[in-house]
Amino acid sequence: MTILSIGRTSYDITCPVEEYPVEGTKYLLNEKIESGGGNAANVAYLLGKWGEQSYFAGVIGSDDYGSKIKKELEQALVKTEFIETAYEAGTPLSIILVNKKNGTRTRFDVVGATQPNLKKYEYNINPNVVFSDGKEYSATINALNKYPNAISIVDAGRVDRDLLELCKYVKYIVCSKGFAETVSGLKIDYNNSASLVNVYKKLKDKYPNNEIIVTLENMGAMYTFNGEIKVMPGIKVTQVDPSCSGDIFHGAFAYCLANNFDIEKAVTYANIAAGLSVTKMGGRTSIPSIKEVINYYNQKFNIKAPVEEKPKEEVKVPTTDALPEIPNAANINIPTMTTTNNVNDIGASFFGATPNPAVSNPQNPTPPVVNPNPTPVSPTPVVNPTPTIPVIEANNNVQQ
Predict the structure, then answer these.
(1) Which CATH number fits domain 1-19+30-148: 2.60.40.1180, 3.30.70.260, 3.40.50.2000, 3.40.1190.20?
(2) pLDDT by residue (tens digit) across 298-329?
(3) Is 86 left (phi over 0), alpha (psi -120 to 50) or beta?
């Protein structure tokens, strides 16, 4: 499959430390890990490493860091003809301190006051998937217009005007917990699973035509499958360095969609890939191979038969072991959940909550049905039409 990743780059220098530095103290560091970085660039790197035809479109500086980024991508067989070089600005640099005692990181981003954007948008390919980190608005809009049939994914890791606008035009929004809380205006409480449902419903109210996945850090990811809200717990590992784990989740998720995995299996694979990555030091150097992810999946769900790296048909999981850690959300259906107090708790077994029966409230409007092929019900909820993607002119002005 052909996948186009659009976004920013950086050069990462990771330094493991025994403890967080004390101000005014001198330290001697005897270890550092260097690699390219940036969300979309990391996604392109993973996809190239996993055997996909991966293209990256982004801007690098005319410096040694930019040269190293391009060379590293090419070593992973990523196509780099859409990379542009900015001579007026250097490549962004990230210094990452990782506390070896608790596996937490502290990041310092060295970025210019203005970051140059892509200018050409000349893509002479026909991608099956378009991934954007949301930081190249015009280039992403151009790609969405040019490839309307491609699977489109955006990483919603922050909240700004351009990203909120981009979310309207893509099929899949993979957002952070922080984005979900800011956009919904609600807080997630892992001890109150109803709070997860309420946040998700608010997101669906704002983006009724999208598939939404909310990453919940080491707690896993929230998504919908067959019209039900579900939480896929993260795998249990000892965290060494969380750097790049979010990017790895996005890359694995894009890989799975490109290879026709359903959303539940895509989230499962993405969780496994991200979880395995935090057991290693460094960002891009922590990306697991696709074979490692498949082997972990097979062992976790007791799948004895060999599977292909890109299975064309869904592997049948024995019913006794099928996704054992996914919380039971069988009674949670988005169209019927309209109250906070009487919501069936999703993830009850995972979060330690006691489920309550779901109660519908006909006084409140019914949110859109998540299932892309829902069984007709009466009354049928009204889903907003998909917005028309704006056209970006050469001078980056939007045609109204």
Answers:
(1) 3.40.1190.20
(2) 988 877 655 555 554 443 434 333 433 444 44
(3) beta
